[in-house]
Each structure stands twice: as structure tokens, then as C-alpha cells.
Design a protein that fits this description.
This protein has 389 residues and is α/β, with parallel strands linked by helices. It is built from 14 helices and 13 strands. 48% of the residues are buried.
Length: 389
């Protein structure tokens, strides 16, 4: 059945040189393709503005202007103020640094809550901090449908809870969490609401104020940009932290105090272009088309495939983990790769959910759809899955 996208999909795809090939990209959860405007922005910075900040000359001043624009753009993307933005090499590195910073004042026996939906980038930083500071890390469980068990969250919250760390969306099974409710429950106990938005980034708008978050970490390579980490830290929270930084580094803007070393300015240029690309399509169009793509995939998934997670598009993004009867997931992914489909297999660093599903050994096949995918690509994938023996 033909469905008309809510935006000019052909025109959008023409903006990606990477998509002009036979390989079908269903690997968005591992990193999306980038439009040519992102590539041009990175190259343009290196050609025309390459310098460090604080120099009394033209290219340095251009870099300072770019830095300010990058903060404003990231703030617009996340719904915060520019001075609450922190840049770094990637989400995991930022998370290790920020968790270590907030943990300076934690006492032995203080508690951190994480979830079994989380990517390990929002688990191991807390496990390592707990090891060094004699803290307690507790895991909030999930239901059989791979949604977060909110009753278990309430049971595990205590007066010693200092942080509730959770994802906006699971990078393994696509579940979307009720972030505003989680943040409210955390705040009732005086804990920080600490969200991982890496996987959710390309799938829907983020507004940290509306969600009531204290910290959010994400990466632009998941929303059509370069490999770059971005964090939001609420001003009222950050002002009470002592940063790990070199002495000459300025304390303002606020987020800068948490940025160690020289930043990758060319990647900031690419991030700006990525956000501008998303804005040119618009979130209503992106969300609507992804829902159509996801519904098509779910409706046609062969009976030999066992889906792990929600069976409809309600409460999820179009990221699907499944296993195929009688075939190891690695073999399925390899066969699909040979036939021109880029998919992932394994645990995707989502260790706890794979344990919970009993998939520690082989993991699952993961298909991740984003707005630049087509219904024809989905149909062709389903046909290939139906041919597997």
C-alpha cells in the first residue's frame, strides 16, 4: 500500500550523498548518516576558520562566534539556556566526567538508581563511582513487554537516593520512558533526574524544562551529525558542583567549566548544520513518518521472527530487536548484510536488558528506522526475512 510522506522524502534523501547507493541503512541506532550540509560545514570551518579561541585575529574570532552559535543551537535543540550546555567528545566520556563531578560530595551508602533499559554508558559510570565511593547502585526492573516497571522504581527510591539515571528511549528495544514522571518521583526524594537521550535524539523533540530534568546527555552522531557529545546541566544544579578543570579555564558560560581541553570546533560546526537539517524537516513530519514506517515493519514481521518489546508503535520509537527461529542473530545480520541491508546484532551495550531477556549469548538482531528510510526499503527487508531458512 502506497502512503505519501508528510514531507518531500525524495528531496530529503537527495541531501545525503551517503544514501545514493544500494546499501539500505537500518543501522540508525549505531549512528545515522549525515546530510551533505553537515560535511560541508565541517570542511568549511577547517578551510576558513580553523583556529583556537582567544586569539587577537580573524579566524580565532570566527571560532569564538561559532562556539557561541553552537551553544545557542544545542540549547534550542534541548530546550534549555545556552550557558547550561556542555560539549565533549561523546556521551560516555561526558557521563563519566559529570558523574565523577557530582559524586565529589556523595557519602558512603548513598544510592544511585539505574534501569535495565539503559545503555551501559549510563550504568558503568555509576558502578565505577560506587566502587570508589562505597555507594549502592540499584537496578530498576522492566516488565515482560520491556517497559520500565514504575512500581519497582517507587519501591527502590529512598531517602538515600541521590541520582535516578534512565534513558529517554531504549537503544535495544525502542521503549520510550515517562521521563516527566520519573523526574517527578526522583525530585520527591531529593534526587537528581539524569537522562540519557542518545537514542531518542533523532526520533522526537526534547524539552528538558518540560520534562523536569536536571542532567541530560546525548550525541549528535545519532541525529544526523558528527561524533560529538552534548550535555545539559541545570544551572541551579551545576552552580553547586566543583568542576575538574585546569585553573585558567573560565567559569562562564556555566557549562564551559565542565569542558576539559580544546574543543573539536569543526564538529561543532557540523552539529549546528545537523540541527538546522532536522529543523528544516520538522518534528511533526519526522515523528509521523517514523510511525508509518514502524507500523509497516511490525505488520509484516514474519512469524519465524520473535519481537522483543512492544508490539505496536505506541510507547516506542521505530527500533526493533528480534530473533529468528533456528538461526543465530549474528548469522541473520551477516546474511542481511550480504543482501544489502545494514542491521546490527549483539547486545548494543545494553547488557541488562539482554540478561533480562535471556539473550546474553547471541543477543538479537536490531533494525533501526529513521525518517530517511522508505516504505520500499522496509518491504524489501521483510521479504528477505521471510526468505531466511
Amino acid at each position: 500500500m502506497s502512503v505519501t510522506p508528510p514531507f518531500d522524502l525524495d528531496e530529503a534523501r537527495r541531501r545525503f550523498t551517503a544514501l545514493q547507493r544500494d546499501l539500505v541503512f537500518f543501522d540508525g541506532p549505531g549512528g545515522t548518516q549525515v546530510p551533505d550540509s553537515v560535511i560541508e560545514a565541517i570542511a568549511g570551518y577547517l578551510r576558513e576558520s580553523n583556529a583556537n579561541v582567544s586569539g587577537p585575529y580573524e579566524t580565532s574570532r570566527r571560532t569564538e562566534t561559532l562556539f557561541e552559535q553552537a551553544r545557542a543551537t544545542a540549547a534550542r535543540f534541548l530546550g534549555c539556556t545556552a550557558d547550561e550546555i556542555v560539549f565533549g567528545p561523546n556521551m560516555t566520556t561526558l557521563n563519566f566526567a559529570l558523574s565523577r563531578t557530582v559524586g565529589r560530595d556523595f557519602e558512603p551508602g548513598d544510592e544511585i538508581l539505574v534501569t535495565r533499559l539503559d545503555h551501559d554508558g549510563n550504568v558503568s559510570p555509576w558502578l565505577e563511582l560506587a566502587h570508589d565511593k562505597d555507594l549502592v547502585v540499584r537496578f530498576v526492573d522492566i516488565g515482560e513487554d520491556c517497559t520500565l516497571d514504575m512500581d519497582d522504581l517507587r519501591r527502590r527510591l529512598s531517602e538515600r537516593t541521590r541520582v535516578v539515571a534512565f534513558p529517554l528511549a531504549s537503544n535495544a528495544v525502542g521503549t520510550v520512558t515517562d521521563a516527566a514522571r520519573i523526574a517527578s518521583l526522583a525530585h520527591e526524594r531529593g534526587a537528581l533526574a539524569w537522562a540519557d537521550a542518545v537514542h531518542y535524539g533523532p526520533h522526537g523533540p526534547i524539552d528538558v524544562e518540560t520534562l523536569g530534568l536536571d542532567v541530560l546527555v546525548c550525541s549528535s552522531y545519532k541525529f544526523f551529525g558528527p561524533h560529538l557529545g552534548i550535555a545539559f546541566v541545570r544551572r541551579a544544579v551545576a552552580e553547586g558542583w566543583r568542576p575538574y578543570k585546569v585553573r585558567p579555564q573560565a567559569n562562564e558560560p556555566l557549562g564551559h567549566r565542565f569542558e576539559t581541553g580544546t574543543q573539536a570546533y569543526e564538529l561543532l560546526a557540523g552539529m549546528i548544520a545537523a540541527v538546522e537539517y532536522v529543523e528544516s524537516i520538522g518534528w511533526p513530519a519526522i515523528v509521523g513518518w517514523e510511525r508509518t514506517l514502524g507500523e509497516r515493519f511490525l505488520a509484516g514481521l514474519p512469524s519465524a521472527c520473535t519481537l522483543h518489546g512492544l508490539p505496536t508503535m505506541t510507547g516506542r520509537v521505530p527500533t526493533f530487536a528480534f530473533t529468528v527461529d533456528g538461526l543465530p542473530s549474528g548469522e541473520v545480520a551477516a546474511r542481511l548484510g550480504e543482501r544489502g541491508f545494514a542491521v546490527w546484532h549483539g547486545n548494543y551495550y545494553a547488557l541488562e536488558i539482554m540478561k533480562r531477556l535471556g539473550l546474553e549469548d547471541g543477543g538479537a538482531v536490531r533494525v533501526g528506522l529513521v525518517h530517511y528510510n522508505t516504505l520500499d526499503e522496509v518491504d524489501r527487508l521483510l521479504e528477505e526475512l521471510d526468505r531466511l531458512e
